[in-house]
Amino acid sequence: MKILVTDDSKAMRMIVVRTMRQAGLGKHEIVEAENGRLGFEKAQEWKPDLILSDWNMPEMTGIEFLRALRASGDNTPFCFVTSEGGDDMAELAAAAGAIGVIVKPFTAEAFMDKLGSVVS
Description:
This is Response regulator. The protein has 120 residues and is an alpha/beta fold. Helices cover 43% and strands 19% of the residues. Strands 2-1-3-4-5 form a five-stranded parallel sheet, sandwiched between helices.
């Protein structure tokens, strides 16, 4: 399985990848992108099976990234990993086609809860 991790913070991308490994989900091929625009470009060319994305990023936010992806006809499972939280954001994410929102700080159990059914 190919997983794209998009976050403008290199440290946060490393934490996400480490947490995926702790959750037993790290045996997959993982590629990183530094913002939503680069994430969209990598998604178009690399065709990941799952996308994890921050919400707030320069150049293209996570929700803009998701909306552009869906507008292009790409239905890759997409989950936000963000410090933003709340019902409004979760509803906005779901309406745009996200499978969920994992709120920072997160645990390996939170990754398994949201991603376990998508990642085999």
